[in-house]
Amino acid sequence: MPNRAENTPRRTADPALFSITEPSCTIQRQGIRMTSQVSTAFTRSGRARRLSRPAYVTVALLVGAFSLTSCSDAPDNDVKDSAAASPTTTAPRAEVDISAENGSTGASINATRVISRNATLTKVTMSRVDTGSAVEGAMSSDRKSWKPSAQLERGTRYEITAEGKGSEGNTVVEHSAFTTVSNGNSFIGTFTPDNGTTVGVGMPVSFTFDKAITDKKAVQSHITVTSSSGQEVSGHWFGEQRLDIRPKDYWEPGSTVTMKLDLDGVEGASGIYGVQSKTVTFTVGRSQVSSVDMNTQTMTVTRDGKVFKELPISGGSPQNPTYNGQMVISEKFEKTHMDSSTVGFGGEYNFTDVPHAMRLSTSGTFVHGNYWGNPSVFGSAGTSHGCIGLRDVQGGGSDTPAKWFYDHSLVGDVITVKNSPDAEKSIKPDNGLNGWNMDWETWTAGSAV
Question: What global pTM score does this model have?
Answer without folding.
Answer: 0.76
